[in-house]
Design a protein that fits this description.
By secondary structure, the protein is mainly beta. The chain has one domain (2-33, 52-233): Sandwich (Jelly Rolls). Helix content is 5%, strand content 34%. It has two helices and 13 strands; from the N terminus they run E-H-E-E-E-E-E-E-E-E-E-E-H-E-E. It has helices at 20-26, 201-204; strands at residues 2-3, 56-59, 73-79, 85-87, 91-93, 96-103, 110-117, 137-143, 149-155, 167-171, 177-182, 210-215, 221-233. Strands 2, 4, 5, 6, 8, 11 and 13 form a seven-stranded antiparallel beta sheet that branches. The chain has a six-stranded mixed beta sheet with strand order 1-3-7-12-9-10, with helices on one face. Strand 5 and strand 6 form a beta hairpin. The longest helix is centred in the N-terminal third of the chain and has 7 residues, at 20-26. It starts with a strand and ends with a strand. Residues 2-40 have low confidence and may be disordered.
Amino acid sequence: MIRISRRSCTALAALFGAAALTACGGGGSSTPTPAASAPPSAPVPAPPSGPSPGDVAFATPASATDTKEAGKIDTYSFAEKGNQLTAGTVAYAAGEVDFSATLSASQAYAGTAIRAYAPGNTGAAPVAAFNASGFTKLKIQLKSTSDGVLSIKLQPSPVAGDGCTATAQAIVNSTLSELVIDLNDTMFPLPDYCNGTGSKVGTLKAGLYAIDVMNAATGAGSHDLGVGSVKLAP
């Protein structure tokens, strides 16, 4: 688990948390993002459906740290004031990874995240990014018992330490549910603070390295998220 608990990260305020993990000692392996509200077009949980013949598994949790596709699972958390953050313990049950963090006071920015690496990738060399050029949709199982919106970041290799990569917002609830999201610039735009600079969907699909799911809530209290299977569909 990657944890950020440094007492001061004031240099990050200019990016509103976008580079929080990198600046706080994460070595560029995480991608904090400012809290965001879901746009009207954000995907919402749908009734469970069977797999389509063309679906390909990207990351299926097999434990708190590994996927059935021989990829790794990482977690990380960060906050404006690291001494006001307490990271929880990652947990696994029935194909689902859960993670949480508690804020003792409201923050200008904060995040609690789970990263699922592409098949065969561990977060270290050698890198074998997944060619997703032939896929048009992301199918991902998500939940949060504390908040209603989660962010989903598509990561290149090396990961975007400043958070400037294709990012979607998803409306979730306390039941693990599959969301189907179009892999395009409309659903996965760059964050506003990136001013149009960063990794866009068209480029990422040719070499998808990891997918981050983040709860960017900033209020005092406990904030959690859960991630189940991640698939790509034609």
